[in-house]
Amino acid sequence: MLYKIIPAKQHLEIRFNNDATQCQFHHFYRSNHVTLFNIPKCASTTLKGYFDFLSEQCSQGHKTLVFLREPFARLKSAFRMKCYNEYGTDSFTKIICKYQNFLQGENIPYKHYNDMIHFIPQSSFIDAVGIQFDFVGRLENLQASISTLNIKWNINNYILKYKNKNEFNQEQNDQFNEEYEKNLQANRTFYTDFLARDIKLYDIRN
What we know:
This protein is α/β, with parallel strands linked by helices and 206 residues long. The protein has helices at residues 44-57, 71-85, 92-103, 113-116, 122-129, 142-152, 170-186, 188-194, 196-205; strands spanning 3-7, 11-16, 23-27, 29-30, 34-36, 63-68, 135-138. Strands 4-5-6-7 form a four-stranded mixed β-sheet, covered by helices on one side. It has a three-stranded antiparallel β-sheet with strand order 1-2-3, with helices on one face.
């Protein structure tokens, strides 16, 4: 078992290798009137600012929202983050292959549990929460989604403040793209199967 997600009111407990003694916790952005189910590698850092804004705007009832990301773009972002974090320790190809091996069932060391949260399919997070969302947005047109939401909920406009902690220079970016694309093409069947439910979820929701 690659992972098991156990829901709680304020967070998800994520167990890798089905080990109850070694797990990671993924917390929601939650206030009295709004909950943002922040999915890893779905602009959760950027959306934290929007959540803070919503928490001051919404004053009636309790709203729940989530933002989805195109599955292959999210996968690439997860690999990119790992290559950025481990830059200089190995080639990008070896770093990518290491995490691919984890996805294919190789035993995950505890030190990588937090890393693997970013690869868990979005559909698994949605299934674990098990609720109907008041709003489902798209990361690919995030500002438009937020503008639509603001109109729907009759609250003030909000201009996104994008944040990205994983900035390669151009040479590093080109190198990562080249090595990632080679791995993706060589293992397209595996990745397509791994993301099958996410692809379906994204298509249905959008």
